Amino acid sequence: MKKQGTSVQRATEGSAHLRLVSSDRIFDRMKDTMDAVARRAFEIFETGGRRFGRELDDWSRAERELLHPLFVDVSESDGAFTVEVEVPGFSEKDIEISVEPQRLTISGTRETTEERKKGKSIYSERASNRIFRVVALPAEVDTASSAIKATYDKGILTITLPKVAKPEARQITVEAKSA
User: Fold this and answer.
1) Cα–Cα distance measured from residue 48 to residue 55, given in angstroms and rounded to the nearest whole number
2) How buried is 173 (Cβ within 10 angstroms: 0-12 exposed, 13-18 middle, 19+ buried)?
3) Alpha-carbon distance 101 to 49, whole Å?
4) CA-based nearest residue to 133, from 172, 90, 95
5) Which of the residue ranges 17-26, 60-69, 79-88, 110-119 has the most confident prediction, judged by mean pLDDT?
6) Do residues 153 and 12 touch, judged by C-beta distance below 8 A?
7) Backbone phi, psi, residue 141, to 5°
8) Is 134 a residue whose pLDDT tops 90?
9) Which residues contact residue 144 at a Cβ distance below 8 angstroms, ignoring those fewer than 6 apart?
């Protein structure tokens, strides 16, 4: 049985207004990203003379070319985790977040167009940058909580995830049954 997580999409700058989406969307994004990396790795293999034994190097190069690195910092307080992610150049509209009990997935795509001049000719160059990062959380978070927040400010995405409340210990008195 597949455990459904809560997804949060498009945290708006300085706002806690979030739109929930299905976790399946993140899995589709992951599949598309891995397919793109596989295609690029095969192109590298083809142009590199079809040398066998370099599959890992080709795959790693394809990932470096297609995926923008994400620097992640996870901190913990008594009741929540705070995850800060550097995503310079991306806007809040480019980013999707999926939250599951012990996993946070961050993905996104941005496209840029740059005009270049070569001699008398001007041409446009389009580039697509993707981000995809799965963060394993050290404890379970409450995916149904309304306290989940994501904010984006100046290239830093900050996500607050409340922990699942621990059940309180109860003292039970043992009574003797009289005969």
Assistant:
1) 11
2) exposed
3) 45
4) 95
5) 79-88
6) no
7) -110, 160
8) no
9) 6
Residues β-bridged to residue 60: none
**Whole-angstrom Cα distance, residue 44 to residue 64?**
12
pLDDT value of position 178: 75
10 in helix, strand or coil? coil
pLDDT in tens, 144-159: 888 899 999 888 999 9
Average pLDDT over residues 26-33: 76
Note the pLDDT of residue 145.
Answer: 85
Specify the residue for token string 């900050």. 158
Contact call for residues 101 and 141 (beta carbons, < 8 A)? yes
Of residues 148 and 28, which shows the higher confidence score?
148
Q: Which residues does residue 117 pair with via DSSP β-bridges, in sequence order?
A: 122
**Checking DSSP bridges between strand 19-21 and strand 6-9, what pairing results, if any?**
antiparallel
Q: Which fold has domain 6-22+68-162?
A: Immunoglobulin-like (2.60.40)
Q: Please list, in sequence order, all residues whose beta carbon lies within 8 angstroms of the beta carbon of residue 4, skipping any fewer than 6 positions away.
A: 22, 23
How far, in whole angstroms, is CA 160 from its chain's centroid? 14
Q: Where are the domains of the chain?
A: 6-22+68-162
